[in-house]
Amino acid sequence: MDAALSHLKKLSTVKAGKNIKFLTPAVYSGGWCPMRVACNLAEDTMGVSSLMVCMPECATHSRGSTSNPEGPNGELRWLYVLDANEVIFGCRKGVCEALREMDAAGAKAILMIATCVTDLIGEDFEGIIAEMQPQLKARLSYVTMGQFKNFSSGIGTWKTGEAFERFMEPREVKKGTCNVLFLEPWRAKTAPVELPLIVHALEKRGIPVRHLTAGATLNDYMNAPDAELNLVVSSYTQPLAKRMEEQFGMPYAGLHMAYSVADIDAEYARIEEILGIDLKEEFAPWRKKAIELEEKAKTVLKGLRYASLTEVDMPVPLALYLASFGCEAMLIHLADIHPEDIQCAKKLKALGFDPPVCRIMHHDHDIEIIRSLAPDFCLGYIKNPVEGFRVAENMNDFFGITGYERTVGILQRIFNVLETGKNGERLDIYGSAPI
Amino acid sequence: MGLHRFKPLPSGRMGIFWTLASIKEAAVVEFGCMGHNLYSGASLRSYGIYEGYGAPLYTTYIDETDIAMGDTHRLDATIREVIKNEHPKVIFLQPSAVPEVIGMDMAAIARLMQPDYPDTPIIPLCNGSFAISQHKGVEEALRILAKELPEAVVKSEKPTYNIIGSCADLFNFGADEVELRRLMQGAFGMEKICVFSSNCSVTDIRNMGAAHVNLVIRREGIPAAKELERRFGTPWVFGRPYGEQGTTAWLEKVGEKLGKEPCACFIKEELDTLELMFDRPRRTLKNNQWSYPDEAVLTIGGHYDVVKGILEYASREMYLTPGEHWCDCPEMGDADIPYYDESKWAPICKNHEKGYLMFSGEALRWAGKNLSLQISNPDIGQRMHPWGAPFVGYRGAANLLNLWINEYTLKH
Question: At what angle do helices B134-148 and B222-232 cross, to 10 degrees?
Answer without folding.
Answer: 10
